[in-house]
Write a structure and sequence with these properties.
By secondary structure, this protein is mostly helical. The protein is built from five helices and two strands; from the N terminus they run H-H-E-H-E-H-H. Strands 1-2 form a two-stranded antiparallel sheet. Helix 1 runs antiparallel to helix 2, helix 1 packs across helix 4 and helix 2 crosses helix 4.
Length: about 120
């Protein structure tokens, strides 16, 4: 039985939901070590981080910290589409607390990854 994800109406709520998803993922990795391999973990965390991208500061990564340059808000239809896709694909499964939920989350991710490679 697959439940459909709850609608996430605005960007702020989407970002909050993505933060919760990452927290649940990390919690699940500690509670159920070995359910997914490190590579899959990195893919999941990267997908969540990219979907949560909202503001960045040019040059901060190169300098190793904040610079005097102003923050840039990231707003694009492509990123909004990616965010919706991640929330739809992983949203319901990432909130499960059981081992079965973690396995379903991994399967959702693999389907998501294979469909995005087309």
């Amino acid at each position: 039985m697959t439940s459909s994800p709850l609608p996430i109406p605005d960007r702020e709520e989407q970002l909050l939901h993505l933060q919760r998803m990452e927290s649940k993922l990390i919690q699940g990795l500690f509670e159920h070590p070995g359910v997914i391999n490190r590579r899959s973990e990195h893919h999941l965390r990267y997908a969540l981080a990219l979907a949560a991208l909202d503001v960045f500061q040019p040059g901060a990564a190169k300098k190793g910290g904040r610079t005097k340059r102003p923050d840039i808000k990231v707003r694009s239809p492509q990123l909004a589409g990616w965010r919706r896709r991640v929330l739809t694909t992983l949203g319901t499964n990432s909130t499960k607390r059981s081992l079965g939920g973690a396995i379903r989350c991994r399967k959702s991710f693999l389907r998501f990854r294979s469909s995005s490679n087309r």
